[in-house]
């Protein structure tokens, strides 16, 4: 009946005590649970780096604009607009060193609205040729591809910029044939950009489907890890904590002397379990074990420990008990629960138990010592006539 315990004690004493197994499972849960968050963070980080590079490039181009305006014979007063845009893009690039949603939104507004309007005002006022007008607008529309706009937002930005470009071409100085050629170039560029945007949108859709699939797999992994945790740390029949879980919890109790000093361990061995199995079958034996687990739970409080050690042995650890009298009171309650009748298929099952009571003392330094002394006290109770409890003299 208790040979498993002594075998476990002999094997565990030959090796160093390992860290509680329960601490390994939260790591699995948190790692799986953070997978979707890491993917979203990575996507936002990639977009931030792309926009930051674009902001640096546009700031550098804006700084070159005064030189171009100088050679074009434009007055110094018009140099303020490119300088203002250079400062704005430099500020966005600096702030985009971190994930700043405000400046990501500002980059979109600058490129979708303000820059096309500035190009329209400047190119219309400068009276360039139609071919010279269409190129800056086409380059600006190409920038829309890296802004990660939604399909409707991209379509709006494309048509807004194209409309401004169309008006600028019609107002430019040049022959009608040059205007028609510029408009054709603009339409071809719009068609190509729309096709590329559609391809990118399809790619993003596929990536989204992959992310969703990975998220579902991570959720399945979490559920599987939770099932593994239950199988590893709980008894499959009664749902109580098993031996491994008990050892982990006793290690945590022993690590805190104040907590251990008011803790009492009860080792319970069912007296008539072999009779139940022989006379009524293993189904009746399983029903008795399940019923005993429920009754033991009803004796203790929420923070106390109820464990099926193995076979017909149970362990209860009650905390916060002051003195032997309170330990005796709990032992009496345990025996009282075992004396209550239990029916299985209309027949009364014989129930009873021998309880070894082992309060903590200074020599109890490991779970094995604690369980070993409680096991010895339980045999004293069994040899005294069963259906009794025995408090270890070492603790007294």
Describe this structure in words.
The protein folds into 2 domains: 3-15 and 237-391, Alpha-Beta Plaits; 34-217, no CATH class. It has 14 helices and 7 strands. A hairpin with a 2-residue loop joins strand 4 (342-344) and strand 5. It has helices at 3-13, 24-33, 35-71, 80-95, 101-126, 130-143, 151-171, 176-233, 243-254, 257-260, 273-280, 282-299, 324-339, 367-383, and strands at 263-270, 305-310, 313-319, 342-344, 347-349, 353-359, 389-391. It has a 5-stranded mixed sheet with strand order 2-3-1-6-7, sandwiched between helices. It is of the alpha+beta class. The protein is rod-shaped, with a radius of gyration of 39 Å. InterPro entries: DGC-Regulatory_Protein, GGDEF_dom, Nucleotide_cyclase, Rev_trsase/Diguanyl_cyclase. Keywords: Membrane, Transmembrane, Transmembrane helix. The chain crosses the membrane at residues 49-71, 77-96, 103-125, 131-149, 156-174, 180-197.
What secondary-structure arrangement, pairings included, does this model have?
Layout: H1 3-13, H2 24-33, H3 35-71, H4 80-95, H5 101-126, H6 130-143, H7 151-171, H8 176-233, H9 243-254, H10 257-260, E1 263-270, H11 273-280, H12 282-299, E2 305-310, E3 313-319, H13 324-339, E4 342-344, E5 347-349, E6 353-359, H14 367-383, E7 389-391
Parallel strand pairs: 6-7
Antiparallel strand pairs: 1-3, 1-6, 2-3, 4-5
Helix pairs in contact: 2-8, 3-4, 4-5, 5-6, 5-7, 6-7, 6-8, 7-8, 11-12, 12-13
Pfam families: GGDEF (PF00990)
Transmembrane segments: 49-71, 77-96, 103-125, 131-149, 156-174, 180-197
Organism: Deefgea tanakiae
């Amino acid at each position: 009946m208790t040979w498993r315990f002594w075998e476990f004690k002999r094997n565990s004493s030959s090796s160093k005590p390992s860290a509680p197994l329960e601490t390994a499972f939260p790591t699995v849960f948190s790692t799986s649970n953070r997978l979707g968050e890491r993917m979203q963070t990575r996507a936002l980080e990639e977009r931030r780096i792309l926009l930051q590079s674009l902001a640096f490039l546009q700031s550098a181009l804006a700084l070159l604009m005064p030189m171009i305006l100088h050679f074009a014979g434009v007055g110094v007063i018009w140099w303020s607009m490119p300088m203002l845009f250079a400062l704005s893009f430099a500020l966005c690039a600096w702030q985009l060193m971190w994930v700043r949603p405000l400046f990501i939104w500002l980059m979109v507004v600058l490129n979708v609205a303000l820059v096309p309007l500035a190009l329209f005002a400047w190119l219309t006022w400068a009276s360039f040729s139609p071919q010279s007008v269409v190129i800056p607008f086409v380059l600006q529309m190409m920038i829309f591809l890296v802004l990660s706009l939604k399909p409707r937002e991209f379509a709006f930005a494309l048509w807004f910029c194209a409309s401004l470009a169309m008006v600028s071409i019609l107002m430019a100085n040049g022959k009608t044939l040059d205007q028609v050629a510029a408009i054709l170039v603009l339409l071809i560029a719009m068609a190509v950009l729309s096709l590329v945007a559609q391809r990118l949108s399809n790619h993003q859709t596929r990536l989204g489907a992959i992310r969703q699939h990975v998220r579902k797999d991570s959720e399945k992994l979490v559920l599987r890890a939770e099932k593994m945790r239950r199988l590893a740390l709980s008894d499959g029949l009664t749902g109580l904590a098993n031996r491994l879980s008990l050892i982990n919890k006793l290690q945590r109790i022993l690590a805190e002397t104040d907590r251990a000093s008011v803790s009492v361990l009860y080792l319970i061995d069912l007296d008539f379990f072999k009779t139940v199995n022989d006379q009524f079958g293993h189904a009746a034996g399983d029903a008795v074990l399940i019923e005993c687990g429920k009754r033991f739970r009803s004796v203790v409080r929420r923070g106390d420990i109820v464990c099926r050690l193995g076979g017909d042995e149970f362990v209860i650890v009650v905390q916060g008990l002051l003195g032997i009298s309170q330990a005796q009171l709990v032992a009496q309650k345990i025996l009282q629960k075992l004396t209550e009748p239990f029916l299985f298929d209309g027949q009364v099952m014989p129930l009873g138990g021998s309880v070894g009571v082992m309060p903590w003392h200074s020599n109890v330094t490991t779970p094995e010592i604690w369980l070993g002394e409680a096991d010895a006290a339980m045999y004293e109770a069994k040899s005294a006539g069963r259906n009794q409890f025995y408090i270890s003299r070492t603790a007294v």
